[in-house]
UniProtKB/TrEMBL annotation:
Coiled coil: none annotated. Transmembrane segments: none annotated. InterPro entries: 6-hairpin_glycosidase_sf (IPR008928), 6hp_glycosidase-like_sf (IPR012341), Ssp411 (IPR024705), Ssp411-like_TRX (IPR004879), Thioredoxin-like_sf (IPR036249). It comes from Hypocryptadius cinnamomeus. This is SPT20 protein. It holds the Pfam family Thioredox_DsbH.
Amino acid sequence: PSRPRHTNRLINEKSPYLLQHAHNPVDWYPWGQEAFDKAKTENKLIFLSVGYSTCHWCHVMEEESFKNKEIGEIMNEHFVCIKVDREERPDVDKVYMTFVQATSGGGGWPMSVWLTPDLKPFAGGTYFPPEDGVHRVGFRTVLLRIAEQWKENKDALLESSQRILEALRHTSEIRVQGQESPPPAKEVMDICFQQLSRSYDEDYGGFSKSPKFPTPVNLNFLFTYWALHQTTPEGARALQMALHTLKMMARGGIHDHIGQGFHRYSTDQHWHVPHFEKMLYDQGQLAAMYSKAFQISGDEFFADVVRDILLYVSRDLSDQAGGFYSAEDADSYPTTTSREKREGAFCVWAAEELRALLPDPVEGATEGTTLGDVFMHHYGVEEAGNVDPMKDPYQELKGKNVLIACRPLELTAARFGLEPGRLSALLQECQQRLSSARAQRPRPHLDTKMLAAWNGLMISGFAQAGATLAEQGYVSRAAQAAAFLRTHLFDPDSGRLLRSCYRGKHNSVEQSTVPIQGFLEDYVFVIQALFDLYEASLEQGWLEWALHLQHMQDKLFWDPKGFAYFSTEASDPSLLLRLKDDQDGAEPTPNSIAVTNLLRAACYSGNMDWAEKAGRILAAFSERLQKIPITLPEMVRATAVFHHTLKQVIICGDPQGEDTKEMLHCIHSVFSPNKVLMVADGDSAGFLYRQLPFLASLERKDGKATAYICSNFTCSLPVTSVQELRGMLSP
């Protein structure tokens, strides 16, 4: 490539997203004091652009506007321009997205916001086309109008920005009202179930027509609802909704049938044509959901999907030091000679390409049948392409096929006169061949940023899968990633988590010059991961670190007046608002996970202040939970766990003993959403015995591994039979 004409300050950053913009003709600054001082000294407005490296429309706006020399000159003359990676700085993103959503009724990325020199927003939106169109004002026009307003009506703008900020501060406040207590579990669970049931798509699963998102938080809620209502029609429906959704997703084009893993979301009702980026947080949560589906149903289909997701992450999103990368892009070059990237180019197929790669005749099938015929029939391939033009406005997928398993294996087998087992082997052979062919294509961009929060979600995915599928290799991978976090994303001097680190030169792991401190979401997802990892590995060191981080989380983020946790610390003067997220989205809101973490922490430590804190979070969100619980399904689930009281399942035995292993296998094979597991191994100097002195009074019966089910530290009679234990694990 030729030497770039422009280089701005972003060249010194570590974020792959910021580095993508380092050669724009725009004089970009990273978020920080240098940019703020320049705006004040020169009395200039700030233009803030927020996005992330795998965001399709962020790429489009860069190509159209930020690479345009004339538009760059307008931006540099009138504004101090700041670029933010929303994955690196979710705190900055959240403050200004709250403003954009409140003033425009929508939001998304790229986010474009204009701020006064003291960082107060007064105008904003998302993607802007470069020039005026029939229905939209162009970016150039918006820039010039705002610059003119600042020159002519500065005082009015400043006054308006102050009013907007006060209104945002008022409307975004979440706090306990009076003597409010946690809402009743049954009522909140039932309303949430009814709201989800009404939005459920009976044919294809999921909870909207289109676009359609995986929403693991909904599935997790439904599994818990089923567990607590197993003998009712509502409970049966909840389970059916969750399992059908997971099955349809796994068969759909949102699932990468050749390269494994899941794309971000489907643009249509059928889970067929996705937005092709792959995010780490989806893989982590979906691995956990498919593990639970297998645990509940015993259907190997779900176990195979778990293995598929974890193969993808191990191969394509893993750093050799043990951490997990953030994402793979949707866009890539169709061929090595292409000049322009296209969405989905790495993943889609032309019919003639498949015929050429799979020409072999299939023995035993109806005469003349080739591998290509079988594969194309099973995966819905059409000669002219199988993508609805309405779902492909830029014709990037014209003539191409997104693979979708649109019929059961048995039907395809019958169609060609094959045994299902043989067909399965043939399809596997096809997939391997296509995988090799796909490896010759230019790969999509890989975002090699490693985030504490998302690594936490992925560790939970590996740990839960390892425990449920009895795959020790997955537990070891989770432990390797947790050790990576402790080495690279934890400061032992301050005892605090860091937000991010990066793959550097020669595969080293690098940190920013000024590391970004961890946010609430980093703490809650890492603490959850460490609890999951302890239950899968029984290594008490992970438990000890989790409880340390819980104390630190309380110190940095707890709101002693209004209750619940703020998303950010109080110490950053550049953040105009301290917010509490109030909606479960692609990831659960941190306060939702914090409730369950606190209840688990109380069980492992005997510190009942934590259980009390869990109740106070529910009290702070009580009004929202009772009116629109569908916005917080994970917190509704936590409400049920709070009211049902967690069972402490304690095994007294040698962790290496066969009788102990048999009991652990039983526990891991039963879905029980309101339990914590611990092994009392007789080491009275160990961490658990120091936390919970009552463990010393529990002993093995007749020298065998013995289980106790305890509630609020009061224990049942000892149990040595696996069958009896299984019965006692039911919620």
